[in-house]
Amino acid sequence: MTVTGIISAIIIGAIIGIIGRLLVRGRQNISWWLTILIGIVAALLGTFIASLFDVKDTGGIDWIELILQIVLAAVGVSLVAGRRGRIR
User: Fold this and answer.
1) What's the CA gap between 38 and 50, in Å, rounded?
2) What is the number of structural domains in the chain?
3) What is the Cα–Cα distance from 87 to 3, expressed in whole angstroms?
């Protein structure tokens, strides 16, 4: 993976993490950097899961992969926020 690929993965992961956080109801007591980290992990995991289904190349935005990544980010934010709430 090139430096450009890494930077774009971080930016896309940050956007996915923020969108995932916005989809979770209520207040989340987690930091923004943790939200971005969850988004990056969700983006990588979503891409991996989508590649398992061998979806044909759409020539544009892969909506199924993007929705999967956002849902994974929302679940991740929800789990981490719930866990951090119980610890404190």
Assistant:
1) 18
2) 1
3) 37
Under a CB-based contact definition with an 8 Å cutoff, are residues 13 and 39 in contact? yes
Structure tokens that stand for 70 in this block: 């956002």
Joined together, the tokens standing for residue 84 give 């951090």
Angle at 20 between CA 16 and CA 13, to 5 degrees: 20
Residues spanned by the domain of 39: 3-87
List per-residue pLDDT tens for the chain, 88 residues long: 678 877 887 888 899 999 998 998 888 888 889 999 999 999 889 888 888 877 666 677 788 888 999 999 999 999 998 876 555 5
36 neighbors 14 (Cβ within 8 angstroms):
yes
Say how far apart CA 24 and CA 65 lie, in whole Å. Answer: 19
